[in-house]
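Interim report, section 4.2 (structural modelling).
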Amino acid sequence: MRDAVTSLIKNYDVVGRYFDRDALDSLKSYFASGTARIQAAATINSNAAAIVKQSGSQLFDELPELIRPSGNAYTTRRYAACLRDLDYYLRYATYALVAGNTNVLDERVLQGLRETYNSLGVPIGPTVRGVQIMKEIVKAQVAAAGVTNTAFVDEPFDHISRELSENNI
Ligand SMILES: CCC1=C(C)/C(=C/C2=NC(=C\c3[nH]c(/C=C4\NC(=O)[C@H](C)[C@H]4CC)c(C)c3CCC(=O)O)/C(CCC(=O)O)=C2C)NC1=O
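Predicted structure of the assembly:
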């Protein structure tokens, strides 16, 4: 598992170079955004259950066929599995936000997930939509908590979406 700093060290150590201007700029920007990243994690932490619940409700309002008898989230077991998946995405996105790196998502969440979803008939498009709804809710809450530039919040959610769909979003 890597974060913004360890991944930079790894890249420069591989070629045996000192940090150059690009590396220092990227370190500067990571540390400058540190307080905002922690504020985002704190905001998510105290609202996680509500964020997941609200994301699910909004997703099922938009795509009610998911919870109809032919839908993948139909039956309480599958409905719960769907919300649990959203909760996984939120928790690991929080780790990635603090790390300033999406490597934790690749290693712990995304590996093999697409294949699992395909074999169970879990629809990718609607899952990606759920992740994007969650991103918007998180961004609104982080902004309400006083973080002025919330652009960095996009990264892990967009990474999950991109990797799941293997397309540009
Ligand atoms: C921490 C990393 C991690 C992830 C990400 C993860 C995902 C994950 N989601 C699963 C199932 C599932 N995932 C969903 C999700 C959905 N269905 C929909 O229609 C919606 C679009 C969507 C919710 C947004 C559903 C319904 C199942 C159960 C499918 C079934 O058993 O038929 C399964 C199969 C095993 C199980 O049911 O637990 C896995 C492994 N597991 C992990 O350990």
